[in-house]
Amino acid sequence: MTNQNSGRAALTYTLQKLRYKMANGEAGRPEITLTEDQIKEVETLAAMGTTEEIADYFGICRATFYNMMDRNPEIYRRYKKGRAKAGFSIKGSLIKKARAGDTTSQIFYLKTQCGWRETQHIDHSSSDGSMTPQTIERIFIDETSDQDTEMD
Predict the structure, then answer these.
(1) Which residues make Cβ contacts (< 8 Å) with residue 29, sequence separation at least 6?
(2) CA atoms of 152 and 143, how far apart (whole Å)
(3) Residues 125, 94: Cα–Cα separation, whole Å
(4) 64 with 71: CB under 8 angstroms?
(5) Whether pTM exceeds 0.85
(6) Cα angle for residues 70, 73, 76 (degrees, 5° grid)
(7) pLDDT-derived band of residue 48, with 50, 70 and 90 as boundaries?
(8) How far is the CA of 70 from the CAs of 33, 73, 77, 135, in angstroms?
(9) Which helix (H) or strand (E) element contains residue 3?
(10) What confidence category does residue 152 fall into, taking pLDDT thresholds of 50, 70 and 90?
């Protein structure tokens, strides 16, 4: 029984030690951080890639990258700046093509930036406003009739 009691005491001591470390932020995995050069690199990467690709580049998972942006405002700022640069570059190319007369670019720009919509309204009602047709006409054709073929 003394062996069992000493095992419990050791476990209790270990749990108390772990709780103490957790309360003081000393327990768990070490926090992953980026160097200053890597933080600067985020801006360039964000202009060309997704968060998944950026995380892969740094050898971390996407959730970790998001956590890093939450903890470090500079990483988030660089990420947003890189995304904005990419957007401005693409928008500039689109506007240049639209101004040069590319109809597809013009239509796309007008739809996404100026609120243009392509809508069709099909009226399925009859002239009196109901959905019921006023008259139904049936035409029967008798193919056995020889009246059309006789000419005197």
Answers:
(1) none
(2) 20
(3) 42
(4) no
(5) no
(6) 75
(7) very high
(8) 12, 7, 10, 69
(9) helix 2-23
(10) very low
